[in-house]
Amino acid sequence: MALAGRRVLLVIGGGIAAYKVLELIRLLRGAGATVAPVLTRAGAQFVTPLSVAALAGERLHSELFDLTSEAEMGHIQLSRAADLVVVAPCTADLMAKMAGGHADDLATTLLMATDKRVLIAPAMNVRMWEHPATRRNLACLQADGVAVVGPDEGDMACGEFGPGRMAEPGAILAAIEAALGAGPLAGRHVIVTSGPTQEPIDPVRYIANRSSGAQGAALAAALRDLGARVSLVTGPAAVPPPAGVDVVRVETAAEMLEAVRGRLPADAAVFAAAVADWRVAQASGQKIKKGPDGPPVLRMAENPDILATVARMGEGRPRLVVGFAAETDAVQQNAAAKRLRKGCDWIVANDVSAGTGIMGGTENAVTLITDAGVEVWPRAAKAAVARQLAARIAAHLAGGAVA
Ligand code: C5P
User: Fold this and answer.
1) 314 Cα: distance to centroid of ligand 1 (angstroms)
2) pTM above 0.90?
3) Known active-site residue 344
4) What is the pLDDT of residues 335-364, one digit of tens each?
5) Does the N terminus or the C terminus of the chain have fewer Cβ atoms within 10 A?
């Protein structure tokens, strides 16, 4: 019972996804939590007060100026008695009100009055989700420390397709557990490296690669969702780091190694960064000028191998060290050889040949190589691959892993 003794204040917004909240209440209670439901006026158009109250087994709160409730338990107290406030579904309108600090009904007043963490599960039409106003509101809420789960991409009740569907109840439960530090990785520290590195040639030029940092960022988010404390050591990536993880920004491989060392000890370390193998041996302090001597000749030096360094540490080595292998040919053989050469426990191999669209793309097709053998995973969104890998890491650290 991961949530035994925990109390969740659940604000139900007005969206077709509200029906999924009934399942969420069931899951929460199954996990040991008590649920105090707050039904907005719009939410009551989609689910009945009776079904919510019956499933929650608690009194339903719905109006700000409910005198009995004010006498029994004011809205301030209601918002503080919870360990976490969850808004599901969180509509575009509720997001806007939260971002703007409105407090014109019970739900928004509770959200303004609470001193607890807030988790939202947005649900709306894809255009509304992608609207610049919603983008702004989301950024604003995240900057305020609001945790966000979903939305998912898929067919929507309005007949369109895209991101906007509320996360599934199981995913919301996992996010609640993570926000309350109760997931399977609670109390664990995981280091993730991500993104490319930039190796300077001179003060304005550098050598880099096409890594977007998407897989590393997704992995950091998935580990966070399972309750881990995540240190994300990232090179200059195109994809922003997820909220709720400790971000260490670096540029070069040497800086990345130092940052990783500085974050140890860790229970697990996952090296998803596309680290430059070489740097310019002597980067120029001044901008290199065109001149009569022709183009410069760059002498390269080998970078430290961060994965191999950590995997071969004696004392202080994380229990689980995972490397990635981006290959363009003989993927499995090269990756298996790399696992032994570098001394890591697992290698996540992928084919980054030009035709696959994997490097810099949104999907990944990976092969997991462990002591136990080779597993080919179906091609999936990088977020889905990340969730699967995070679950495997959690199982391994819990001692129940086959590999
Ligand atoms: O040798 P290769 O670059 O193919 O190895 C890939 C794996 O090693 C990845 O996990 C990558 O993050 C890691 N690596 C590293 N430091 C390097 C080179 C690679 O940590 N200098």
Assistant:
1) 19
2) no
3) no
4) 999 999 999 999 999 888 888 887 777 888
5) N
